[in-house]
Write a structure and sequence with these properties.
mainly alpha, 16 helices, globular, 428 residues
Amino acid sequence: MGYAKNISSNFIAEIINAVIGFTISIITARALGPEGKGSIAYLLLVFGLIASYGHFGINNATTYFQKRTTYSEEEVFNNNISYLIINFFIISIIIFTLKYFGVILSDYDLSFVILGLLFVFFSYLLTSAAGFYIGNERIVKLNQYYITSLIIRLILITLLFIFRRVNVKLIFSAYVISFFLNSFFLLRNVGIGYRFKLNVGLLKKEFQYGLIIYFSALFIFLNYKVDQFMIKNMLGIGELGIYSIGVSFAESILLIPDSVNTALLGRLYNIDKFSPKRNFLTSMTIKYTFYICIVLITIGSFLTPLIPLIFGRAFQRASTVTIILFSGIIFASIAKVSTPYFFSQGKPKVHLVISFLVVVLNVIFNFILIPVWGINGAAVASSISYFFYGVTYIMWFVFKEKFSFKDFFVFTEVDKKLFYSILKRNKK
């Protein structure tokens, strides 16, 4: 499957995801108000954090060991799934113990913990399986299953709304069901038969590589979410509900770099490490992504006054939050598309260094600005970190990887010719 088709598929999937997410957000906000919206946001934050990082880096190493090592796909697949099953049982014991002693989730009953752990398990499986689809550039098929699960989630939540059964637990259950279906579709059609098998040597190598990407990804997750954790603890669940509306609008701009990211990663893994095409493809993709995001943010800024009309007057302050976050998310789009270059080069430490600095900066500014300006202060702090995130990548490319500033911001005739030639070759 060609690079252009994979990007188009990702873009369509992200558009559908944004529309469905927007619709679900309206239903949740209208039916549950700021506190209910905040409760859903907090559950997704906590269990999303565990799902994304409880595996300690194995899922981050999947595609690299599939494509850049002598291990077969079957070896990597069986090893990783087996490890994730064991890991899940250990994580579950830890979570139940912490819940029992009131350390975490004290405001939620046991059924929420069970649902959350199922959310984690299905997320583990679908993320691991998705790595193989990305490595083989089966992006279109990956997105077909993803879209199907999103539509089912929307149908379930819409039915709850129609029959007036909307509550936090049932909304969260709809997310769990959609994650289960997505993982089921992906595993069933990945093309590799599973049998329980652990290869300690392979695990060790994956940890050595994956832990670097793991901590990098953790830092970036925190960079995008630490403001929400801090708002919940410093200002309360209602303020988080209002803030989460602004975050969802701002992060919808990232549908462009998210559309590009996996397609670019898969393409770069299938191009020789020393080919000059890698540099061109990387800079061209960053450049197009950056300017498209500017256009979308300009349009979005004029639409923010509609937020209280759509979500209700209780969410009016989300308009200001959205505009502030827009100013920084432009630069986050640069960073989002930059990471595949370093992962496919076997240089994940670059991302680790940058992501660590960014999250530290974000935490410091949130501590300073939230007490002063509330949720607007959190938005300012995040925007500052997003700006630093994107600019640091550009500086690294220019001074360490021998790119030029012009590569990322100026369109040339060479750009256009090479772009069209790549499109034609990849459509074959």
